[in-house]
Amino acid sequence: MEMKGISYQECHSVGTIVHLAVDGEYVGSYSDCGLLKPHAEEAIRALKAAGIRKTVMLTGDAKRVADKVAADLGIDEVYSELLPGDKVTMDGKLLSTEAGEKEKLAFVGDGINDAPVLSRADIGIAMGAMDLMQPLKQRILF
Question: Which of 5, 18, 92, 105 has its CA 20 to 30 A from that of 48?
């Protein structure tokens, strides 16, 4: 395959894939393999045990990554490949079609792209996130 005049090898793992090139020469790829946050599965189970009716994932991740993560965690519904504005649109749809008068919408986000949705939700939970690419960024100039 080729992108921007650089030939690269297709990666078939499930995860966010970053292809690396140095001086126009493909040198390899990195994948986070769709790593789950610690205790994520336990948190989803606890929410459902507490009576949370429905869990929905809104993510900018690729569809196959998002689908795998949602399945692994037991999330009821997933919307993937979303831009921040798309998340706001989906948030509005969920608020208007899913939430009754006594129901509330909580949104958990871990990035700056989640800020618009966090501010619109009835309950916005912002989580700090460790940047998995930081060790690479310190060694490679982009």
Answer: 92
